[in-house]
Design goal:
34% of the residues lie in helices and 39% in strands. The chain has helices spanning 16-25, 27-32, 59-76, and strands at residues 2-11, 37-46, 49-56, 81-91. The protein has a four-stranded antiparallel beta sheet. The relative contact order is 0.31.
């Protein structure tokens, strides 16, 4: 069973590409060192809104990631984003369909 943490942010400064670069070089390596880390991504949903998605092996690990992300954001990009929401839930389905050429 896996768990997903979804957090939404409002961008207050800079571009999505700049934010992605900062997160990829800072928060992602921090998460990658944590037990239970599975995957991470950012989504530009338009209108200066961003969704952060992380997948973890346990609910406790997902909860810990929320605290880690909050601390990292405050220390590194608080001038660029404003946190809006955070939700953690059981990941029931996350699959792709094989692509044929």
């Amino acid at each position: 069973m896996q768990f997903t943490r979804l957090s939404t942010y409002e961008m207050t400064k800079g571009s999505f590409d700049e934010l992605t670069s900062l997160v990829e070089k800072g928060l992602l390596p921090t998460f990658a060192k944590e037990p239970g880390f599975v995957n991470y991504g950012l989504v530009d949903t338009g209108d200066h809104k961003v969704v952060s998605i992380s997948i973890w092996q346990s609910h406790e690990q997902a909860q810990k990631s929320a605290t880690m992300a909050t601390d990292w954001v405050k220390a590194n990009i608080a001038d660029r984003v404003r946190p809006l929401t955070t939700q953690i839930g059981h990941l029931a389905l996350f699959r792709g369909i094989p692509v044929t050429a």
